[in-house]
Write a structure and sequence with these properties.
Distance between the termini: 30 Å
Radius of gyration: 30 Å
Number of helices: 10
Order of helices and strands: HHEHEEEHEEEEHEEHHHHH
Shape: elongated
Structural class: alpha+beta
Number of domains: 2
Strand content: 15-25%
Helix content: 40-55%
Number of strands: 10
Length: about 350
Amino acid sequence: MSPRSEASGHAGEVFIGWREIRRAAGRFGLMTGVIALMSFMVVVLSALTGGLQQESTSAIQALPGTGLAVQTDAGGAAANLVDSRLDADAVAAIRAVDPGARPLGIVMSGVARGGTSSAVAVFGRDGADPAAASGVRIGPEAASALGLGVGDEVTVGGVATRVAEVSPTLEFAHSPVAEVPLELWRQVAHRDEVTAMVLTRDVEGVAGVTTAVGSARLDLIPGYSSEHSSLLLIQGLLLLISAVVVSAFFAVWTGRRLPELAVVRAMGAGRGYLLRDGLGQAAVVLGAGLTAGTITGVIIAWAVSGTVPIQLSVVGVLLPAAAMALLGMLGGALALRPLTTVDPLTALNR
């Protein structure tokens, strides 16, 4: 091919793709809108997943140490952080291996004043917070709901104490955390056994005890694994559906274009030329749809973040968008396969 012919070919390649988009603007616009809607849902769902995860796990993620030791249940698995019970013997056995291990008590209860109460997850720890050593540390939401300030009398699970501190708190299983000294926690929980031990090193071989290290600690939170897995599954299905929709659209569109493309093929256009033309159209549709949907999703998620648990991050926004782009282009490429095998004479005589 001469330089002039090659330049003409590249110009024609761009011209054909854009000409068809302009000629069928309604169809391409509808497809772009569908992709924008899907990317919007994926971005918002990703932000919601992050927000719900933060609401459920932030208190456990903030714990010091390397892991948690909990009771082994009857099935041989780790008991969750509501059902686990470690008695004095188990605590002593753990401390024999890890002298720096600290007890942790967790119980779902409530903070009350007068006839008003607020549900909380009560965390009991030894020396965890000097400011709360003589009372309870609660979050500003609970304090506002109950009209509490530092020094006010309050009951935690029916046990009278005082508010030692009001400051932003973390959350456990979608409940705000109220921190109290371990001895006060035992009164609230009505038991001597602690829930878990916060470890500073690996602890193995302790009878009746199972350890969870790193992100495995989050699986000990009641309901977290099923909730998080369900949301991730929905995201995955949306990504898969987007690839199928793009593939179906371009499969139908390619079938309608075959006679016209056969003429281009008969004029000497190569298979690579036709494939690049089709992929270029797919890239334009995907790019426009993903951009519009992602921007809209970020704006809407930010707007409702005050009332809905939302966590926006660069990775949480760009990763789903990149996955949709990759799967969409893959689906489009599969749908465009007839372009690489089209026979001019056969296509023209359809």
